[in-house]
Amino acid sequence: MTIELTAHEARVIGCLIEKQITTPDQYPLSLNALTNACNQKSNRHPVLELDERTVQALVDGLMKRQLVLEKSGFGSRVPKYQHLFCNTQFGSLKFSPQGTAIVCELLLRGPQTPGELRTHAARLAPLKEVSEVEAELEDLMTRPDGPFVAKLPREPGRRESRYMQLFCGDAPPAADTADTPAVPATASALEERVAALEAEVADLRREMQALRSQG
Predict the structure, then answer these.
(1) The pTM is what?
(2) Of 88, 90, 98, 102, which is most buried, counting CB atoms within 10 Å of its CB?
(3) Region at 182 (left for phi over 0; alpha for psi -120 to 50; beta for the rest)
């Protein structure tokens, strides 16, 4: 795999793929439409607040790398943009409709479990069963021209492992769960554990105060 993206470039590419599938009549996208798509509050994580100047700079950089093409319609004075990231005659990167949907959702939302991907990617391609998602993920991890996806170490409290796209960097090494105690894999998980411990301490203090008042 030779395509490397920044987080914001991944958002631009993900938005172009998404809108090509969901709103083909409005695709390619103008700079304004693409900026709105990048900052969209639904189907995005994290939610961004990019201005048009920033998005234009991202698009210009992607065009230089032949990952985006400016293509305005007949009689249109507004430049419009389409992706050349995958499934085009200009590149060798080809995905199935289901694989495209999964990659798109990983670009737009970050790491997700197969169950989450089935829910989110089903709006872009037919995905009725989690097993279909798992099969596509396995293909994306083992293709000779890849890997494009990696499986992350399972986080404490989660039944499923999450998967991440590799266009923005390599996956962290898997944790050795046999020899090391489980620790939170993310800051949010750590915050949740701290909050739970603080609540438990507060409960114990209330119980002690109640016992003292009874004595």
Answers:
(1) 0.78
(2) 102
(3) beta
Residues 69, 84: contact at Cβ < 8 Å?
Answer: yes
Q: How many CA atoms lie within 13 A of 129 on its CB side?
A: 4
Say how many C-beta atoms besides its own lie within 10 A of residue 73's C-beta. Answer: 8
Task: State how far the Cα of 158 lies from the Cα of 37, in Å rounded to an integer.
Answer: 30
With contact defined as beta carbons under 8 Å apart, do 34 and 58 qualify?
Answer: no
- How far from the centroid of its chain's Cα atoms is residue 132's Cα? 18
Q: What are phi and psi of 10, to 5 degrees?
A: -60, -40
Q: What is the mean pLDDT of each run of 10 residues along the chain (215 residues)?
A: 92 98 97 98 97 98 97 78 93 95 98 97 96 97 96 90 94 51 45 58 63 66
- Residue 182 confidence (pLDDT): 40
* Start-to-end CA span in the chain (Å): 71
- 183-to-9, 63, 156, 190, 207 alpha-carbon distances in Å: 31, 42, 7, 8, 29
